[in-house]
Design goal:
The complex is a heterodimer. Chain A is of the alpha/beta class. Chain A folds into 2 domains: 167 residues, 3-Layer(aba) Sandwich (Rossmann fold), CATH 3.40.50; 64 residues, no CATH class. Chain B has 3 domains: 136 residues, D-Maltodextrin-Binding Protein, domain 2 (3-Layer(aba) Sandwich), CATH 3.40.190; 95 residues, Periplasmic binding protein-like II (D-Maltodextrin-Binding Protein, domain 2, 3-Layer(aba) Sandwich), CATH 3.40.190.10; 213 residues, MetI-like fold (Orthogonal Bundle). Helices cover 57% and strands 9% of the residues of chain B. In chain B, strands 2-1-3-12-4 form a 5-stranded mixed sheet, with helices on both faces. In chain B, strands 8-7-9-6-10 form a 5-stranded mixed sheet, with helices on both faces. In chain B, strand 7, helix 5 and strand 8 form a beta-alpha-beta unit. The longest helix of chain B is centred in the middle third of the chain and has 39 residues. The N and C termini of chain B lie far apart (61 Å). The chains are: A alpha/beta, B alpha/beta.
Amino acid sequence: MIEILDLVKNHGKLRVLRGVTLRVQPGEVAVLIGPSGGGKSTLLRCINGLEPFQAGLVRVGEWQLGPGRPRARLLQRLRGQVGMVFQQFHLFAHLTVLQNVMAGPLWAQHRSRDEVEQEARALLARVGLADKADARPAELSGGQQQRVAIARSLAVRPQVILFDEPTSALDPRMAGEVLAVLTDLASAGQTMIVVTHAMNFARKVAHTVHVMAEGKVVESGPPQQIFGQPQQEVTRHFLEETANA
Amino acid sequence: MKPLILTRCWIVGVLLSALAGCSSPATEELRWGADASGGEPYLVERPGEEPDGFEGELVAYLGEKLGRPTKFVQGDWDGLPQFLQRGDVEMILNGYEWSSEREKAMASTIPYYVYHLRLIVHKDSPIRTWDDLKKPGLRIGVLRDTAAHRYLMENVPEGNIEALGAEGTTTVLTRVSNRQMDATVQDDCLVPWYLERKKLFPNLHAVGEPLAPSANNYYVIFVRRGDEALRERLNTAIREGLRDGTLRRIYERYGLWNSAQERLLEVSNHWPPAEAGITPSLDWFVWQLAQAALTTVLLSVTAMPLAMTVGLFIALGRLYGPRWLGIPLAVYVEATRGTPVLFQLMTLYFGLPLLGINLSPFWAGVIGLGMNYAAYEAENYRAGLLAVPIGQMEAALALGMSRTTALRRIIAPQAIRLVIPPVTNDFISLFKDTSVCSAIAVTELLARYRTLTVNFPQLALWTLLITACLYLLMSYPLSLLARYMEQHQEDEEDDPA
């Protein structure tokens, strides 16, 4: 289970997160939506320790992060449980696709190469890219790169995967490829926290939708409730704007 | 048009007068070249006046006899023969030993001084005789390209010799007196002056017999070949000075007159001597230069890895180290890049011994070049590391890698490809910068080139050509390598995305 309690995060004088509390159960798909600048991406980055925070708590399974700079060892352990997929993919440019997927298990978890390679090839097959194992990232389309990035984060067998606007840098067709993979993961019971503007995906796949605005979770609930009977003015306003866009 | 024509006329006028100045060097002033940094008792500098010293006084006497005012021109001792050839001066004298090789390139006057070599050591030194210098592992200081240097090159192991420029005379004496060097071989003029008169180095003494390194151990004045008229007038004046005791009186003021000088008049009757000069074979020349080229290569291939390693630590320290480390490292980089490498080498070689740290010339050169280039390599690495997008580090950390692993596996491999071309280029410039090590007594290619040019002026052109070829032979493959790697990288970047 993932638990975020009263998280407060400042960027200099700007308060980006003003006491966020969130729980995600194993196997749950939590989708974060809301206007830009509401703190969604920052929240994800706090969960895996890429950003320190000033108050509150992050708990992932047995690992727990507090305010300030955590110890490197703790961060490494926690990150082994929390995968992350970035908007800009961030594949390792000097490695092949297969080596990208093997990087985590080999260099962070020190597992045996044979086992890791077998598993990496299986993961590539799962995201539909078995034939690209020896390609370089630069030779792939954006959608393919993002699918490799998903396979790479799956390879460390995390409890939860954080998706930070995984389709925002992609055109609709490539976004479709990536969302199909996410849907497949969700049905396989992978715990996920997804920041996205893809409302259809949220509607269909999410178990819980959290609306974030101005550094707070303003409303949470199943998709039918959030999209059908939004309780908060902010949510209504946001949904109207995205519908019109 | 008019102003243009006028300008042209003016330029032509200036050129003509400049040419005239060159072709018939000053009809009044007698311009003479010497190196004042060679010091006493040869020359004693006097601000705003012609120098004193026994050679200064000799020139004053000659000028008076020739009825011409004299004008001292400062030059590097080993470069002065070229000054003379170029016509910048009419004559040079500064303890130039007569040799048949020099006689071929320049015209000598009759000798004005009979010199001997003296072996100077610390009073507690076990060295007692000339033969003691043959023991390997000694440090023997000597002035570069002098007869003393030549004697040592022929008689003691090459590794024992530390040859320094003219400014090194007192440095060498100081070092021998501090026992940082084992001995020095100098012309005998220094002994009565520094050791007996001035008593500047009370713990030094001369041992062994005064040694004549050749049958014709004389100081002479050189004029250009073809300027025999000047030579004859100088010869007449010197002869007269020897006869009437003027030279003796000058030399006695510096404690230099001795029985050997009495044969000068006799020698002048059969001058120049018919000593068959040995012009070395081309093979010997190439061999001499190739050996020095090897030192150049050794310097480069030792200094560059040092620079690359130290540079890496500096770059990593500045980028990822604790904040308190950043400031001294930044200061180091700026101080190193902000001072000349020659100055840094001199600090290591001449300065450190004052603190009791005594580096051999080679290692002073390696450390100096290495530490200097480390600053540049650090900046190369830093630029390379910063050029890798931040997302690469975040992605690696998000997989659970430690910062160190991420650096090693993800960041460094990408940075290295960016860094290879500038580092290769730096290797080429370091290779060329090894030539400054000649200032701190490393016999690398440039130092050997100068020695050979001074000793065999008649072969100066050959020496120049061979030296240039050797430098190119060594640096051109490096340039090719650098170009290949740059090309290689561009190809990779052009790969279809």
